[in-house]
Design brief:
One of its GO terms (biological process) is glycerophospholipid biosynthetic process. It is found in: Membrane. By secondary structure, the protein is mainly α. The chain is built from 6 helices and no strands. The chain has a single domain, classed as Four Helix Bundle (Hemerythrin (Met), subunit A). Helix 1 packs antiparallel against helix 2. The longest helix is centred in the C-terminal third of the chain and has 35 residues.
């Protein structure tokens, strides 16, 4: 469902309907929570679900980030940094899969913190545009901490998966 909400969120942001964008994002967040609860509670977890769930989250977040950056409400360099991190993780995972073997990409805590920071930043930009102006200092600090979390989690993925790859390749 979250994948289908991406276009309405982008449309609402692009047309400066920030309240609507926030409402649609809230629906997406609630559906994510319900989906996760039901999957765990009733043991409805599947490989497909474990792949689609983070993809849906990432598409919605990247689309929101991109829209806000192209509107000039987020720095473009931060968007490129976020995209570069995600691309490095995906390419690293594919490289590992095709050169070493199957793996389960489990999210690291630094990645979860990064995602929360990015979501908080998007919500903060929306709140700043719609209801509470002059959150400039808080936005600056949040952008800084998002940048730090993007870099840290990206490096952590590279180190952990690089070490796993090295150990697999050098195993007798």
């Amino acid at each position: 469902m979250r994948i289908f909400l991406v276009l309405p969120v982008v449309w609402a942001l692009a047309h400066e309907r920030f309240g609507l964008a926030l409402f649609i994002s809230l629906i997406a967040g609630i559906s994510d929570g319900i989906d996760g609860f039901l999957a765990k509670h009733f043991h409805w977890q599947s490989r497909l679900g474990s792949i689609l769930d983070p993809i849906a989250d990432k598409i919605l977040l990247v689309a929101s980030f991109s829209t806000l950056a192209f509107m000039g409400l987020l720095p473009l360099w931060l968007l490129w940094l976020v995209l570069a991190r995600d691309l490095i993780i995906v390419c690293g995972g594919l490289l590992y899969h095709y050169t070493i073997g199957h793996f389960e990409l489990t999210p690291l805590w630094s990645s979860k913190i990064n995602t929360v920071m990015q979501i908080f930043l998007v919500l903060l930009v929306i709140v700043n545009q719609q209801w509470v102006a002059n959150l400039d200092k808080l936005l600056e600090y949040t952008i800084f901490f998002v940048m730090l979390s993007v870099v840290y989690s990206g490096v952590e993925y590279m180190v952990i998966w690089g070490n796993k790859a090295w150990k697999q390749k050098t195993k007798p």
